[in-house]
Amino acid sequence: MRILITNDDGIDAPGLKVLEEIATQLAGDDGEVWTVAPAFEQSGVGHAISFTRPMMISQMGPRRFAAEGSPADCVLAAVHDVMQGNPPDLVLSGVNRGNNSAENALYSGTLGGAMEAALQGLRAVALSQYYGPEIRDLDDPFEAARLHGLATLNALLERGVWTRDDYGIFYNINFPPVPAAAVKGLKVAPQGFRRDMGFGVQPVHSPSGRRFLWVTGAPQQQPTVEGTDADLNLKGYISVTPMRADLTAHDALEALRAIE
């Protein structure tokens, strides 16, 4: 199996090293693992692409490249340049430092890379490690992802739903914020929503008097509706959420026929 890996934390991020280990095991002795990842951190860029400027790409080693762009850019660079003519069998994005459960998924560059791969007709999975008090002091905060990642991916490849329609399914995996031994299992879950929370801005002034705005986040330990991704993660489960890039609110279409 030929596997492409990318992320949004940058090519030197520890989570990418974890993903490389997982991908190497998954690819097998006869497989290949290719890396095309952002040269710098790209957290929060979502599915952005560098449409108005070129991006430099540099080879860092055998089958290893850094691109000055977003995770979606990296997938485009891999498919249409680095691996042109021989695309990957699977694209993995992550392992993100921090969860991409609930509304975080909408901002995630990690998911942006997987989404672009799906739009390119490729099987794709995003992987993220939820952070929290129980793993903060571990020598390896990615322990749950490192030890359970291969089995989770194998389960998806063997029994997951993979489509080749216009907006093909891709997967969002979040590993819980607990030590690997405390992981309770795997649950398929819908995307949740953290109510009364979200991103905002905090104004600050520089020493020169200029006014800047820092984007602020929110506590990540508030559960979502029971049975959704973040709720299950906080209860110690790995969540697997099937996703599509189609943004249509299909449940509202019929009601809107009245305006035609």
UniProtKB/TrEMBL annotation:
<feature type="binding site">
    <location>
        <position position="96"/>
    </location>
    <ligand>
        <name>a divalent metal cation</name>
    </ligand>
</feature>
<feature type="domain" description="Survival protein SurE-like phosphatase/nucleotidase">
    <location>
        <begin position="3"/>
        <end position="195"/>
    </location>
</feature>
<keyword id="KW-0963">Cytoplasm</keyword>
<dbReference type="GO" id="GO:0004309">
    <property type="term" value="F:exopolyphosphatase activity"/>
</dbReference>
<dbReference type="InterPro" id="IPR002828">
    <property type="entry name" value="SurE-like_Pase/nucleotidase"/>
</dbReference>
<dbReference type="GO" id="GO:0046872">
    <property type="term" value="F:metal ion binding"/>
</dbReference>
<feature type="binding site">
    <location>
        <position position="8"/>
    </location>
    <ligand>
        <name>a divalent metal cation</name>
    </ligand>
</feature>
<comment type="function">
    <text>Nucleotidase that shows phosphatase activity on nucleoside 5'-monophosphates.</text>
</comment>
<dbReference type="Pfam" id="PF01975">
    <property type="entry name" value="SurE"/>
</dbReference>
<keyword id="KW-0378">Hydrolase</keyword>
<dbReference type="GO" id="GO:0000166">
    <property type="term" value="F:nucleotide binding"/>
</dbReference>
<keyword id="KW-0547">Nucleotide-binding</keyword>
<feature type="binding site">
    <location>
        <position position="9"/>
    </location>
    <ligand>
        <name>a divalent metal cation</name>
    </ligand>
</feature>
<feature type="binding site">
    <location>
        <position position="43"/>
    </location>
    <ligand>
        <name>a divalent metal cation</name>
    </ligand>
</feature>
<protein>
    <recommendedName>
        <fullName>5'-nucleotidase SurE</fullName>
        <ecNumber>3.1.3.5</ecNumber>
    </recommendedName>
</protein>
<dbReference type="GO" id="GO:0008253">
    <property type="term" value="F:5'-nucleotidase activity"/>
</dbReference>
<comment type="similarity">
    <text>Belongs to the SurE nucleotidase family.</text>
</comment>
<dbReference type="InterPro" id="IPR030048">
    <property type="entry name" value="SurE"/>
</dbReference>
<dbReference type="GO" id="GO:0005737">
    <property type="term" value="C:cytoplasm"/>
</dbReference>
<dbReference type="GO" id="GO:0008254">
    <property type="term" value="F:3'-nucleotidase activity"/>
</dbReference>
<keyword id="KW-0479">Metal-binding</keyword>
<dbReference type="InterPro" id="IPR036523">
    <property type="entry name" value="SurE-like_sf"/>
</dbReference>
